[in-house]
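Quick question about two entries, pasted in order.
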Amino acid sequence: MRYKVVLQKSEEGYSVSCPGLPGCWSQGATEAEALENIQDAIREYLAAVDDVLHGTPDAEVREVEVVVSRGPSGPASIISTPCGRLRRQDFVWFGRASIL
């Protein structure tokens, strides 16, 4: 899996967060250490989410495929398909349905 992270210089070295995983932060004295630490933090975050999901009775855990494409104005938009098959009604463009 690949996640985008935000690396910032701080007084103590570097802080790093993963915007796709709210609350997932780490730090390090160097860029390399901070990036290594956020990888550990992401693994722990995902393991905790997995524990919660599988420990919830009556919950049905499913996976969806997400395809990232470029919108007409440049920024990326997210297109989600519940079954891995693209259909017109599955497309979402910046939170609004789009017609292809």
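Here is the second entry:
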Amino acid sequence: MNKLPELQDVLGEFGAGIFVDQLNEVLKDTAKAVINHGDKGKTGKITITLKMTRLGEDSDMVDVEHSWAYEQPEMRGKSSRINVTNTPMCVSLKGHLTVYPLSQTDLYEESNLTSIKGGK
């Protein structure tokens, strides 16, 4: 039986893992900016947004728009950036998100073979 996906597995699939890599760098850079320029109440902020849209009327897939945005303090002011990308994901009957379906019809099962051959 397949292990059910956990949050870190799902996040790791976004953008083939690039989303998590970028987010890791943004986290480190923002923390360094707060240490270097965070005097006088200057703060850093990172926002992660996940937006889902169904892919087709009869589809069991969603398009996940995943984005991060940051604001980092600088010596004089602040810098900011937004990054938005998308990843299509399958949704299982129990709501688990995966790149591939957790289960699928066995094409070699006898009932499926006869329907493929055009038999009854």
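Reply: Helices lie at 7-13, 18-37, 110-117. The radius of gyration is 21 Å. Hope that helps.
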